[in-house]
């Protein structure tokens, strides 16, 4: 869907259009966190996954019957295996793709590390939240849903680099604050969650606007490379965050998270 939006939106409005789509994605993530907390609190936790399977099946049917059949942007182009081979080739030869891929790997690791370990923090002393209360904690994401469309307008007006650097500042400051205060006040994780969500999604909009401008006929492959890096970062962040939390608690995982934004800023610059 995201590359399709990149194809349909005019270049001067691409970031704004992408921001609207990202807002929709955020609403889905927000609803998933909330609903999973409610379902796990009142029923068996496995029902969360059964519900997710059912929703995905219904969504697949809706897309099959109602999504228009848009023509290929490269009808006489590569076969499937050549297209797959071209993805790592573009990552190695296109600096405008390689930099966002490295950056989104780092930011995705921070994003998932926070949201995974925050569950452990909130369910332990002194917070002692239930599954329902942990799900309600996700409502802090509403702030990012409201802000992202305005971020898209700013990305359209200014260089994506400036937006990406702003994202790093917000992410770094909120991570440090949440790490230092999260063990004794809920305000710390709230500020950190808002800052990480806003910084991560701002970087997403800015990076995608830059990446989709590389080659109009290869936007799906560019998006594959970009999102592959993001998913790899999410897996790494979840695994490393859990390991660090088990070794040293909230502050140990938080200190590791706070190191990533400066590294990303050095990659961008």
What does this structure look like?
The longest helix has 30 residues, at 219-248. The protein has a single domain (2-73, 80-268), classed as MFS general substrate transporter like domains (Growth Hormone, Chain: A, Up-down Bundle). It starts with a helix and ends with a helix. The protein is built from 11 helices and no strands. The chain has 269 residues and is an all-alpha fold. The model has no long low-confidence stretch (mean pLDDT 84). Helix content is 81%, strand content 0%. This is Major facilitator superfamily (MFS) profile domain-containing protein. InterPro entries: MFS, MFS_dom, MFS_trans_sf. Residues 1-269 form the Major facilitator superfamily (MFS) profile domain.
> Tally of extended strands?
0
Q: Please provide the ordered H/E string of secondary-structure elements.
A: HHHHHHHHHHH
SS content category: mainly alpha
Top CATH class: Mainly Alpha
**What fraction, in percent, of the residue positions are helical?**
over 70%
Enumerate the spans where pLDDT stays under 50 for 5 or more consecutive residues: none
CATH topology: Growth Hormone, Chain: A
**Helical element count?**
11
The fourth-level CATH homologous superfamily is MFS general substrate transporter like domains
- CATH architecture field: Up-down Bundle
β-strand amount: under 5%
Shape: globular
Rg measurement, Å: 19 Å
* Distance separating the two termini: 30 Å
Mean pLDDT: 84
- Note the main sheet: none
Total number of domains: 1
Organism: Cylindrodendrum hubeiense
Keywords: Glycoprotein, Membrane, Transmembrane, Transmembrane helix
Main location: membrane
Protein name: Major facilitator superfamily (MFS) profile domain-containing protein
């Amino acid at each position: 869907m995201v590359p399709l939006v990149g194809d349909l939106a005019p270049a001067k409005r691409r970031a704004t259009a992408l921001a609207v789509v990202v807002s929709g994605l955020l609403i889905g993530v927000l609803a998933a966190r909330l609903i999973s907390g409610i379902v796990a609190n009142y029923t068996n936790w496995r029902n969360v996954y059964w519900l997710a399977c059912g929703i995905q099946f219904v969504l697949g049917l809706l897309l099959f019957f109602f999504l228009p059949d848009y023509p290929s942007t490269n009808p006489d182009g590569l076969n499937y295996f050549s297209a797959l081979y071209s993805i790592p080739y573009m990552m190695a030869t296109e600096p405008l793709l390689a930099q966002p891929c490295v950056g989104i790997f780092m930011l995705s690791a921070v994003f998932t590390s926070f949201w995974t370990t925050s569950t452990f923090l909130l369910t332990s002393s002194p917070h002692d939240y239930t599954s329902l209360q942990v799900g309600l904690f996700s409502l802090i994401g509403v702030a990012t849903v409201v802000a992202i469309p305005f971020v898209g307008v700013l990305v359209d007006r200014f260089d994506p680099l400036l937006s990406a650097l702003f994202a790093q500042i917000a992410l770094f400051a909120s991570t440090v604050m949440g790490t230092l205060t999260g063990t004794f006040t809920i305000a710390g994780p709230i500020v950190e969650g808002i800052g990480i969500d806003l910084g991560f999604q701002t970087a997403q909009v800015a990076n995608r606007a830059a990446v989709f401008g590389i080659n109009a006929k290869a936007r799906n492959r560019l998006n594959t490379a970009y999102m592959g890096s993001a998913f790899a970062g999410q897996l790494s962040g979840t695994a490393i965050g859990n390991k660090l939390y088990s070794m040293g608690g909230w502050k140990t995982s938080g200190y590791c998270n706070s190191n990533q934004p400066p590294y990303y800023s050095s990659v961008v610059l």
